[in-house]
Amino acid sequence: MISKKFSRALLATAVGALFAVSGVANAADSNKPIKIPIKNWSSQIVMAHVIGGMFESMGNKVEYVPVDNQASFEAVRTGDLTILHEVWQSTMQNAYYNAMEKGGLIDAGTHEAATLEEMGVPNWVIDKGLCPGLPKWEALKDCSAAFATPDSGGKGRWLEGPQSWHGDVMPNRVKGLGLDDKWVVKFAGAADALWAELKSAEKEGRGTIIFNWSPNFTDASGFTFIEFPPYFDGCRIADGGSMETTGCGSPPGWLKKGANYKFPKTHPKAYAAFSKLSFTTPQIGQMAALVDVDGLTHADAGKKWLADNEDAWKPWTVSVLGAGN
Amino acid sequence: MKLDIRNSKPAQFAILLVVFFILCLAIGPGESNYLWRLPPLFKELPTVINDSIQFVMYDWWPIQVYDPDIEDFEEKALFSEITRSISSAFLFVITLIREIFLGGTKTIVAFTGWDFIDKNPWAEWPALPWTVIAGWAIVLGYKLQGKGLALLAALSTGYIGIFGQWEPSMQTLSFVLIAAPVSVAFGLALGIWGYKNHWVEAALNPLLNIAQTMPHYSYLVPVIVLFGVGDQAAAIATIFFATPPMVRLTMLGLKNISPDIVDAGMMNGCNRAQLLFRVQIPTARRDILIGVNQVVMQCLAMTVIASFIGAQGLGSNLMIALNSLKIGSGLEIGLCIVLIAVLLDKLSLAWANKQTDYFADLGFVKRHQYWLICGAILIAGILFAYFGGLIFDEDFNYLYIVPHNKGITTAPFWQAAVDWIWDTFFFMLKDFNEFLIVSILVPMKEAYLAMPVAATFLLVMGTAYILAGIRSALIVCGFLLFIAFSEYWDRALITAYMTTFSVIVASVVGITVGSLCAQNSTASKVVLLLCDFFQTFPSFIYLIPVIMLFGITDTSVIIAAVVYALVPAIRYTVEGLRNVPAVLHDAGSMMGVSRFQRWISIELPLAFPHIMLGVNQTVVFALFMVIIGAFIGTTDLGQLILKAISDPRGTGIGIILGLCVAFIGLAADQILRTWANERKKALGVA
Which CATH number fits domain A32-114+254-321: 3.40.50.300, 3.40.309.10, 3.30.1360.70, 3.40.190.10? Predict the structure, then answer.
């Protein structure tokens, strides 16, 4: 089996080399490694290993490169990374479209997973009755005192993620909803600061409202997203909306993929499979849980997921390579 | 008694403060009031810088480059081709070292190509068993210094190997082993050049100042643009960060050589190269070695930030662990970083201090005994690994390579310790935190922001004039003007408020602790060792527990800054006090002073200039951490620097913000350094 696969790969590269020499457009994938970014949250890393494993099963080589999320967009654009496999709409679309506009980054399709990135509270905040009426946003009008911190000047603290994610969406929303005399937006510096805040608020039993997303590891312990007025295109001030409309909530988010513009040319087969690839919300949740709950290493979690879910991912490679692979 | 204002600094300060408060009251806030805030004249500067870098990188001097992967010509800019070839050279060497440790195919690929590997699957360089590297480190330690260092090497490599951090540690090591020697060589060369040529020195000084005070993540985007993402980019960013102390200490060391020694060298007929390498550098060895020590420390201090731009190894694992709040494994990784730093530092010091015995006449075995031992270790290690392969399951051959995160782990222990601290002190600290924020920090921040720009200039320049003279006052004015003309003045005030508070606390605590420890030589040694520890221990690890205890508040930022800034405050106090000559202690005792009187009236005044240099470093360290505090959540310059990473004009914005931070540090540096030097002259200890 292995030797068969190997000889096939050998044949493929030999043929590829032949084509390359003769100058005919080569249909086989280049044997240079595909560079996959490793960022700092579990589902992303496991998915990197899952996708890497899938590429390897197609006879490609892969390399995992640790990189800061915000820096990765520039790196894919210049070709230092080959793919981006988890681009969240609400928090990363700015960086994504900026890189696309500058040139070098291409859209490689969207995952099936529906994502949600929104303000919310851990379930125990609701259970304790700290803000009756949640998850409707109108409830926030009357419970801000329970969410005050020493430096919030008596108002409730609205803990948003780093400013690089959204810009001023949250300050505008608070103003647009007329909550600015009761709530003040504080930007956390990084995602881990949000988790640390969740933990210490629970310890203290004080109210906390943070920016969070799903699928995420916080889903397991129970987290409720607040229902804001529905999103429509152009409701936010940055997209041409006005103060009246900017109170809108987050859009039902997409989870996109991206690639360097050379990827389809250098690795046409891997690219075809990658652009077909699409994970669902439960699948992403499973990947994260293998690490966060079962305590596997990220690489092992990737292998285990591939082994357990052949039905899910084999079709993508088969459609490119043909059956029997 | 008539007060002589000309000679009384307190009186001058009193007048300065009175005028300052009058200005504060007289000037009200107003958009168009230039005494309140200066107009943002430099608003377009980030865009200009950004566009120029983009132009040079992507458009200037286009050349056609053939890309075999897509079988087409691409238009590329000459400059980026040059920087990219530098980075591939770096990458090659890093990969080579990494593959010696961990095995791999890329070095072979560099000489042959991926096709060759596909056709010859045997062509993979095997990893060295970890027992071999550990054994070599022990032998090296023993050869260079003796049993002590051998023991340290055994403990460090043992810890790293047994606790399953071998692979990431070797990855980190492979890039440090490039970054550190390059920094040392580069720093030595620049230092020598600066020593020989006054113009070069004059040009180097401001550049070094900026490089040392500019927050490192403000230049991450330019580094990515120029050198890409990966270990090579990380190594290059690290070199930027680690070289300046080496340059400075080389120049310092060479300058302090007594002319007699140079004369002696000349009389012996040295030519210029011999004079430099045989006489001057060996004589300046002490300072140069401190430079090497600083380079090693800085390189390892960069491991975490380096992982943002692609460095593999401990730094990136640390960030992943912290992101899921696994503080226990974070601490374990942090300990590995410190161990590598300490071991490299001691090995390099021992190597540099080793005297060559020119007169030894030894046989072959005796002369080459260490090489022979190393060879024996290699063979033994390979045999061990081979038999290990028979005993253990294929994936888990613990005698070959301990797989990552599959060794024994100390994480639960550390985690339990952190949890205990959290459980025990949480509510106590909560009250303290509330008091601090409500009664001190918020009012202080508001006071800073309520200062009219004219009053700020008056206060800072006046202080500079009183303490350090008119020249310093003008230089400081230049720094402040740059910040005032950018659109970031208010942000800079918030940075300044947090830095001021941290520096005051760190200095008071540091000088007190340092003074107490300096009374006893063992205590001094222990506390200096702790200083080394905290200088290399990645600060990101204690950011998380600090947030859990103090929330996403300014308190957390300030506490992290105080912890880090204590390092120089304590270090310089201990060094300064220990260097007060014993004769003076005796003289004091003979006059009948008590121990406390001796400290107040003899030791502190004499050590004062050195302690002031410590306070100067405290400012730099505190500023550095306040900016890192952006990862907790601040509203100052650091937040914008962090945000710049994803901004389309990020390169320019990052650089301007970085300069603003650097200039705050340099303004303080200018005042404190000049003051310390004047005091030194006055005391006759210069």
Answer: 3.40.190.10
CB A96 within 8 A of CB A253: no
Q: Which residue has the higher pLDDT, B384 or B395?
A: B384
Question: How does residue B403 score in pLDDT terms, banded at 50, 70 and 90?
Answer: low
- Which of the given ranges, B26-35, B112-121, B342-351, has the highest pLDDT on average? B342-351
Amino acid identity of residue B647, one-letter, is D
Q: Which residues of B225-262 are buried (b: 16+ CB within 10 A; e: fewer)?
A: bbbbbbbbbbbbbbbbbbbbbbbbbbbbbbeebeeeeb
Query: Residue A163: which of B441, B631, B639 has the nearest Cβ?
Result: B639
User: Which structure tokens are listed for A207?
Assistant: 């109210």
Structural element, H or E, at residue A4: helix A2-22
Query: Tell me: the pLDDT tens digits for A180-209?
Result: 999 999 999 888 888 888 888 888 888 899
| A319 in Cβ contact with A276 (< 8 Å) | yes
User: Count of residues for chain A?
Assistant: 325
- Alpha carbons within 13 angstroms on the beta-carbon side of residue B44 total 4
* Pairs across A and B, CB distance < 8 A: 181
Q: Is the ipTM of this complex over 0.95?
A: no
Whether residue B242 has pLDDT greater than 70: yes
Q: Would the pTM count as exceeding 0.90?
A: no
**CATH topology for the A116-239 domain:** D-Maltodextrin-Binding Protein; domain 2 (3.40.190)
Q: Where are the alpha helices (DSSP H) in B395-553?
A: 411-435, 442-449, 453-468, 470-485, 489-518, 521-536, 539-550
pLDDT at B369: 78
pLDDT band of residue A18 (cuts 50, 70, 90) is: very low
Q: Are B448 and B496 in contact (CB under 8 A)?
A: yes
**Angle formed at CA B19 by CA B14 and CA B25, multiple of 5 degrees:** 125
The answer to whether B541 and B627 are in contact (CB under 8 A) is: no
Contact between chains at A195 and B324 (C-beta distance less than 8 A): yes
**Nearest 5 degrees, angle CA B230-CA B210-CA B486?**
100
Sheet holding A223-225, edge to edge: A183-187, A156-160, A209-214, A116-122, A223-225
Give CA–CA dist B524/B517, Å, rounded.
Answer: 5
CB atoms < 10 A from the CB of B535, how many? 20
- Whether residue A224 contacts residue A121, with contact meaning beta carbons closer than 8 Å, is answered with yes
Q: Mark yes or no for CB contact B115/A61 under 8 Å.
A: no
B426 to A203: CB separation less than 8 angstroms, yes or no: yes
Give the residue from B66, B544, B552 with the most A CB atoms within 10 Å of its CB, the best one to mutate.
Answer: B552
**Minimal CA separation from B541 to chain A, in Å:** 11
* Whether the predicted pLDDT of B66 surpasses 80: no
Give strand pairing partners of A258: A84, A107
Q: Quick count: other Cβ atoms within 10 Å of Cβ A242?
A: 11
Most A CBs within 10 Å, among B229, B631, B640, to test the A interface: B229
Residues of B numbered 504-543 whose beta carbons fall under 8 angstroms of chain A's beta carbons: which are they?
none
> How far is it, in rounded angstroms, from Cα B503 to Cα B569?
9
pLDDT exceeds cutoff 70 at A88: yes
B586 touches chain A (CB under 8 A): no
**Percent of chain B predicted with pLDDT > 90:** 21
Given a contact cutoff of 8 angstroms between Cβ atoms, the answer to whether A58 and A277 are in contact is: no
Quote the pLDDT of residue B359: 64
CB B497 within 8 A of CB B445: yes
CATH pick for B413-683 out of 3.40.50.720, 3.40.120.10, 1.10.760.10, 1.10.3720.10: 1.10.3720.10
**Per-residue pLDDT tens for B47-63?**
888 888 878 877 777 77
